[in-house]
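Sorry to interrupt, but I need a hand with the structure work. It will help me judge whether the discrete encoding reads sensibly. Write everything out right here, beneath this request:
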Amino acid sequence: MNSFEFDQWCSQQQLTASALDLIATIRSTPPSRRVQGRAKNVSGVYPSRKMGQTIQFESHTVELWAIYQMEHEEEVLEFYDQPPPFKIQYHNKTGRKIGHYHTPDFFVLRTDGAAWEEWKTETELKRLAEKYPGRYQKTADGKWHSPPGTAHAESYGLKYHIRTDSELHPIFTQNLIFLEDYLLFNTNIPHTITEQILTAVQANPGTTITATLASIPGIRANDIYAMIATEQLYVDLYATPLVEHWRVKLYPDQQTHQAYTHLAITTQHHQPIPLPTALLPNTVLLWDSKPWTLVNFGETTTTLLPEIGQPIQLPTAYFLQLLESGNIKIQNSEKQASINNAVQALMDAASPSDLSQANHRYHLVQAYTQRHADIYKDIPASTLKRWVKQFREAETKYGCGYVGLLPHTKRRGNRQTKAPNQSSELLDKFITEHFETPRQAPAASVYRLYVRACNELNIQPLSSRTFYHRLKQRPIHEQTKKRQGAKAAYPTEPKILELTKTTPRHGDRPFAIVHIDHTQLDIELRSQATGRNLGRPWLTLLIDAYSRRILALYLTFDPPSYRSCMMALRSCVQRFGRFPQAVVVDGGKEFHSIYFDTLLARYHCIKKTRPGGKPRFGSVIERLFGTTNTEFVYNLLGNTQASKQPRQITKAVDPKQQAVWTLADLYTYLTEWAYTIYDTSEHDSLGATPLQVYTDSLLIAGEREHRHIAYNEDFLMATRPSTAKGTVLIQPGQGIKVNYLYYWNDAFRNPAVEKTKVPVRYDPFDMGVAYAYLEGRWVKCISQYYSTFVGRTEKEVLLAAEEIRKKDKGNSVSTNISAKRLADFIAKAQEHETLLLQRLRDLEAKSVRENLTSLGQGVPSVSQVQVIPQSIAVPLNSKDIAIRHESENVQLLDVTKLPIFEEYR
């Protein structure tokens, strides 16, 4: 809202002066200040279009889904995450008074008022209500409220709401996420195509997406999704996920959909009405006062199963008429749910042998009711009558006679414990208080303490066999967590990675969820210029979770940083012209820098942080790292498999001595493997190749060309970082200062721009230039010592600055880093081991970046690349041994002996 709209809204709400001041404070507080002190709890960032800023959330389901809902609710005018905290007081379950500061999840301005909102799951609220009954309470109508939160809100004349996940429909939220590209961005679908689709749907209300695509040549699913988002077609977003084309039914408008739903009739084009929510498989129906089980509700026929006898099939239209007239009724749903749970429990407890016996008995009971005496002639009459009685009793009680035929062998005998209660309870106490503790006491020691305690109490101790049996019966995950901690117990934690049962954990289409991470490859590399061993490179991968396709990769010697993330995203846009809808990252600091967050927000990408110390949530990319090593890296000379057993390494197998690959050559072949070999090989989890799954999914989920991002100078500028403040001051005669260096452009001579602050960006791979935003355009600025810093990376300059600080600290002088000191220091890099090594690594990485930034060029083929350098100097035993091609004699150039000249001015 602008200031006029806000003033108009305030006048309509008739708020108090204190409430107006509070709302004005919240609206004026920057997001970075609102979440100060709580950033460690943030697990994701959502770039809100409605708010024009990023919204941080802690829960990937409840809070993120609430954000999606508020983004698309017309009555929500504004919402703010993590508003300023306020103090609340309440009593816990022991009656103790507690007081602390509380930060709600959101502060929401709606058309009917303003309120604080706290979102939690029903399960979590039940647990908190037992622990803090004075803070969380459930009313008679089933709604949750917080008395201390409500009291604080009422002091301002506002409201405080406790919201739960039961208010968030999973299918509706999933469809909103699916349609987000169409809801927030304009699509240009030709008018002729929309007319054809609308005409077909008007002629066949309730037709499916599959039928529409088949009936109109040249129509794509992408066109239908665009029409749904722009409300040219109506779909019940609560009913079915949009990717399931065969189930999604299209209507011209909402009124037509409601008419077909409420009237429950079949249209003249034989399109049946939508399935009522109560008519699910296994639903028990009452027809002529007898129970029937619904087996299948089909498009043309419906199958019903009677109590006794064979199933029958009715035309769906006739079945619906019987249902509408009341001849067929649905049995009470609550009663049916409890009966189904009881039947399911009996079936779950049955062993395979129990089921085999029940099947045999059912066959005989059916023969008895149908008077086939030859089948049961060898069975005693009393036994057969007993089975028939059990079948009918179970039929009356559960509506399923089959469970009455299950044998109850496990219930025979005396199942009650024979151990003294006092001894048994004391044993459980010692296991809980002495064994399951961080002290990790041995089981034998705990049992000896237990026996000693029993002797002191003059009671009979249980045997050691019983003690160890009890230990094995304890939940292994909880036991390991109490003794060794959460990380040690992680392998035994239940593998529940889905957000909910109805939400696909890997998304429902390509680019919906993308994982990005780094790993250090198990291979030693050399410098192409000097032959010096430069160590192991770092690989950054960007992988699509749905298709398992490698979208981008980046190879560098530098440890993980925002630069690696930026280059991987650049490569993704260059190859596909797309940005992911959500990117999953770990807790690495490179994923939580201001540059990375700004880039994601710029292209409306959600950042989700996976839980720390739980690699299963990143299993998609973690497994790919292992595949990269086993299928590619381990087949190359210089791989570090031998280093895993350092005591067995000899000179002949030492990876540092075997290394022959350079960074550029490794990158060329690695991209060939990732983008060609891996992409077209069948994936075990998919049953198809990643490329095939990706291509087929685009046809179903929509190509979404309107979200295309051009790989041009505007995009490259958006990926370039800025300073911490984002702006710099133009100093007369000197220009702008970025990272200790002054940069100049003749546009700075204009008196109108002198001493003004302008946005600034720089290239982290070329510190010789920077960019300032002047008069509506970006201008290129040249460094004060351009000849020294051109081609130098940000990493090298920062490393030089750190070396200067260390030198000044050792000499006990004040550190004053200037551009001249940096230039002089870098000029002597050949004499400095650390800077020389970094320079060599940067030179190796330059060819990789040139390959990435070459516009309009694909990945070079293996046949176009020379893999092994024709001349490599390899230091062995402190001697340089040149490895040359047999047919050529190439002399090496020793760059360390080149003369250094003064800068020409």
Q: What stands out?
A: The first helix runs from residue 3 to 13. The two ends are 55 Å apart (CA to CA). Residues 33-40, 263-278, 496-502, 855-893 have pLDDT under 50 and may be disordered. The longest strand covers residues 766-774.
